[in-house]
Each structure stands twice: as structure tokens, then as C-alpha cells.
Amino acid sequence: MVQTMANIRDAVDAVIAAVMAQKDYLTAVDAKTGDGDHGLNMARGFAAAEERLAELPPDAPLAEVLHHIGRAFIENVGGAAGPLYGIAFVRAGEAVSGKTRLDVASFEKLFTAGIDAIQRRGKAVRGDKTMLDTLIPIRDAFLPENAEGKSLRECIEDALEAGRTGAEYTKTIAARRGRAALIGARSIGIEDPGAMSSLIMFRALCGYLRG
Ligand code: ADP
Ligand code: MG
Ligand code: MG
């Protein structure tokens, strides 16, 4: 289990590769309940992020890397998810500023900062069929009451399982935020694209951390 920041760029590359590989899937899911651009939006954001990251020194700290990913999304991606992920990455970066090792508490802080930013801007709550239905269960796995007595590795595996369950749950509910809310109950039966992109990113991070 890699806990240091030394390989942060490799971890980010793994996340980007996973999103790029699922671009068509994310776009197809979004076409069922929205406007069919979520994969394209994610790909555009990460392509812009890659350009910015290439300018950074190879040992740039996690906080700085997250900041640049966030700025890339804010400056290059329109619509709902782009600015929401953008501000979430920026705030997540701030939450781990100065950190050279990530422990359970840093994961909790990082995700809480991102979730808070998304909720302040987008006003969604858990159960509205959004990316938050994946991200909040992931974060909850790192809360002291759930993490007690567990290693970081165990918490990360629990978080992935919780994220999967959360993303799967979005199939069963009607959208109350974003474009999919326009079709309301007709979105039942289809997973939320943002919940899936959040799961894809975290799953790729876990895959990288497992080695
Ligand atoms: P757009 O809907 O503008 O085309 P995207 O397709 O890129 O943007 O992203 C759609 C995703 O954004 C949704 O699947 C949902 O997860 C997320 N989303 C939309 N509105 C909100 C919101 N208010 N809060 C949190 N997430 C949201
Ligand atoms: Mg869309
Ligand atoms: Mg759009």
C-alpha cells in the first residue's frame, strides 16, 4: 500500500486512464437521462489537467496537483459536473496542503472538503441521484466511527465497496438535481453519470494503491 506522495503522479495517471477508457460509457449513460456529454466533459477536463501537470516539477506535492486538476476543470469544462468537480479538487487540495503522507484522517478531510464544496455550489443532498451518492459513502468509510481499529488499506477497500453500493443505488431513484431532474421519475432504472465517474476515479485510485 503506497501511502507516500512519491508516486502521486502515477496515481493521477491511473485515474485519468480509467476515465478516458470509460469516456464513451459515461457519455452513453448521460445520453439516457441528460445531454450525452459527461464522458466528453470528463475527458476534456483531464486532458487540460494533463497539460498543466506536465508543467509542474515531478515531485510536486499532492495539494498542488489537485489544485491544478481543479483549475483545469473550472477553466475548460462547462455544464454541471465540470465546475463541481473543479471546485471539489481545488478544495480537496487545500485540505491536504502540507501533507506528505496520507492517513485515514487525511482521506476523510480530503473527501469532506470536496463534498462540502460540491454541496455549497450545487445544493444537492445524498439521494438526489448525483456524484454525491458515490462520494459521501466513500468519505463515510473514513469517519472515525467506521475506521476505528482498521488499517488504511481496509478503509480504502470498505470505501470502494460503499462507493459501488452508492453508485448502484442511483439506478433506483429519481433525479432531483441537474439535467436528469427534468425527466424526474423517468430516470429511475438508469445510473447517474456523475456517480459513475466518481466511482471510476476512486476505483482506479484503489487499483493503483493495491499495486
Ligand atoms: P451537464 O449535466 O451540464 O451536461 P455533465 O453531464 O458533465 O453536465 O454532468 C452531469 C452530472 O453532474 C450528473 O450526473 C450529476 O452527477 C452531476 N450533477 C448535476 N447537478 C448536480 C448538483 N447540483 N450537485 C451535484 N452533482 C450534480
Ligand atoms: Mg451532460
Ligand atoms: Mg452538458
Automatic annotation (TrEMBL):
The keyword Transferase applies. The keyword Transferase applies. Keywords: Glycerol metabolism, Kinase, Transferase. Residues 6-207 form the DhaL domain. It catalyses: dihydroxyacetone + phosphoenolpyruvate = dihydroxyacetone phosphate + pyruvate. Pathway: Polyol metabolism; glycerol degradation. One of its GO terms (molecular function) is glycerone kinase activity. One of its GO terms (cellular component) is cytosol. Its EC number is 2.7.1.121. One of its GO terms (biological process) is glycerol catabolic process. Homodimer. The dihydroxyacetone kinase complex is composed of a homodimer of DhaM, a homodimer of DhaK and the subunit DhaL. NCBIfam families: dha_L_ycgS. ADP-binding subunit of the dihydroxyacetone kinase, which is responsible for the phosphoenolpyruvate (PEP)-dependent phosphorylation of dihydroxyacetone. DhaL-ADP is converted to DhaL-ATP via a phosphoryl group transfer from DhaM and transmits it to dihydroxyacetone binds to DhaK. This is phosphoenolpyruvate--glycerone phosphotransferase. It comes from Selenomonas flueggei ATCC 43531. The lineage of its organism: Bacteria, Bacillati, Bacillota, Negativicutes, Selenomonadales.
